[in-house]
Design a protein that fits this description.
The chain has one domain: NAD(P)-binding Rossmann-like Domain (Rossmann fold), CATH 3.40.50.720. Helix content is 39%, strand content 12%. The radius of gyration is 18 Å and the shape is globular. The protein contains 10 helices and 7 strands. It starts with a helix and ends in an 8-residue tail after the last strand. The protein is an alpha/beta fold. Strands 3-2-1-4-5-6-7 form a 7-stranded parallel β-sheet, sandwiched between helices.
Length: 289
């Protein structure tokens, strides 16, 4: 895939309301690499991905399906986007279910896991990816209700869904959490979001230690500026116009460029000796370890 040819230049100014729609984006994000050749790395596996109706979660779900996995997509309310990705997964010959709801609510997490287990019997790969963010002026602009909402979606939801899913995750499986470059290089205009992404980093590392006796690998992916619906839904038109220009590649990344990092952690054939680690996909926007 050559993103410079497929998606040249910065995105045009545009705005959406949260949580954002992939259908309304200009240009559309790149969800798949047409040159990719699958090798059955997840054949017979069941993968659950949150926030998989669009953006990074969507690209990872499609890639997992191309590698042979059946898919459960959890999303908030973007039904058109969710049906679009589900249709693509069916085209690939895999089973898929979509479940709408708020992962910030523990009851929803429990109901979702029950439905997944009823449909598929188990969960081999759990990807905690759903997130929300809002642009701030700074600390004075940060309201307690926003902090609570951001934490409820971005980290409480990870914890509650993992807690509900864990009894149905076989030994030797994989859990993958989406953190962010903001955990390492936080910006004041995303203060609460950055705090949750740092919390995800430590949740990943502590859970990796807890689950090591079961050989369940727990890792994280830390994207930088990636062109997803969260961007026009979160930022001003001016910010969108400049989005991604600060990277060494001077452009935003595409979801299809992040998805292989999730596949690496999901596939036992590639990462059987890796746990508690983070892969950074950020276009050189931050040099982190």
């Amino acid at each position: 895939m050559n993103p410079e040819k497929t998606h040249p230049g910065p995105p045009p100014p545009q705005e959406q309301s949260l949580p954002g729609s992939e259908e309304a984006m200009r240009p559309k994000p790149i969800d798949e690499d047409p040159e990719y050749r699958p090798g059955g790395k997840l054949e017979g596996k069941v993968a659950v991905l949150t926030g998989a109706d669009s953006g990074i979660g969507r690209a990872a779900a499609i890639l997992f399906a191309r590698e042979g996995a059946d898919i459960a997509i959890l999303y908030l309310e973007e039904h058109e986007d969710a049906e679009s990705v589900a249709g693509r997964i069916r085209e690939l010959g895999r089973r898929v279910i979509t479940i709408a709801g708020d992962i910030g609510q523990p009851d929803f997490c429990r109901r979702a896991v029950s439905r997944i287990v009823e449909a598929f019997g188990r969960i081999d790969v759990l990807v905690n990816n759903a997130a929300e963010q809002r642009e701030l002026e700074g600390l004075a602009d940060l309201r307690p209700e926003q902090v609570e909402r951001t934490f409820r979606t971005n980290i409480f939801g990870f914890i509650e869904l993992t807690r509900a899913a864990l009894p149905h995750i076989p030994d030797g499986s994989a859990i993958i959490n989406t953190t962010s470059v903001q955990a390492y290089d936080p910006k004041p205009y995303l203060m609460d979001y950055a705090c949750t992404k740092a919390a995800i980093l430590n949740f990943t590392r502590s859970l990796a230690k807890e689950l090591a006796p079961r050989r369940i690998r727990v890792n994280a992916v830390a994207p930088g500026p990636i062109w997803t619906p969260l961007i026009p839904a979160s930022f001003s038109e001016e910010h969108v116009r400049e989005f991604g220009k600060s990277t060494l590649f001077e452009r935003p990344g595409q979801p299809a460029e992040v998805a292989p990092a999730f596949l690496y952690f999901a596939a036992n054939s590639m990462s059987s000796y890796v746990t508690g680690q983070v892969l950074h996909v950020n276009g050189g926007s931050a040099m982190v370890s």
